[in-house]
Amino acid sequence: MATRKTTKKSELTQAGEHLSTAAREVGTAVTHKIEAFGDAVSAGMKRARKNVEKQRDEAKAKVGKLVKMAEAQVKKAQAQLKKASTSAQKSVAAAEKKLESTRRSTGKQIAALQTSAERKAKALQKAVAKEAAALKKAAGMKLKAAAPKKAAAKAPVAKKAAAKKAAVKAAVKAPAAKKAAPKKMAAPAKKLAKPAAKKAAK
After folding, report:
1. 63-89 residue pLDDT tens
2. Domain carrying residue 62
């Protein structure tokens, strides 16, 4: 009986030991699996982190390149703007200088034209005054010349009138002389009357 109990106890003990061993092995296996899963997860996390870091670095590199390109473009634009501003300032200065030169030249031309116009006006006034004086003088001379002509025109009329009067007187005196003087004396009286009429006509 005692032997049987001892045997039973030993079987139970052995079974317990087997169970304990199996539990330990299961625990160890589970632990190994958990560790392996943890290692796998950790490795995945590391890979993911590396990928993320790589993408981050690539993104940083791209952003850096873009920033450098933008800075280069900004510098280029600033240089072009500065160059354009300098060129515009030069153009404005040249235009102002040209405008000032044109103003001076125009002012000189206007002054010269004004002086020339004043000279021409004065010369024209002098010429008009001279022409007026000449016309006035010529008109005076014509008036003076016209007066003697009128007098000369009146003189022949007076002479003719005087000649007519002398002829009439001679004609009146001739019959009286014919009556008083003999016939011989009539002819000399006519001869004398003719020269007297001619003188009166002259």
Report:
1. 888 998 999 999 999 999 888 988 888
2. 2-201
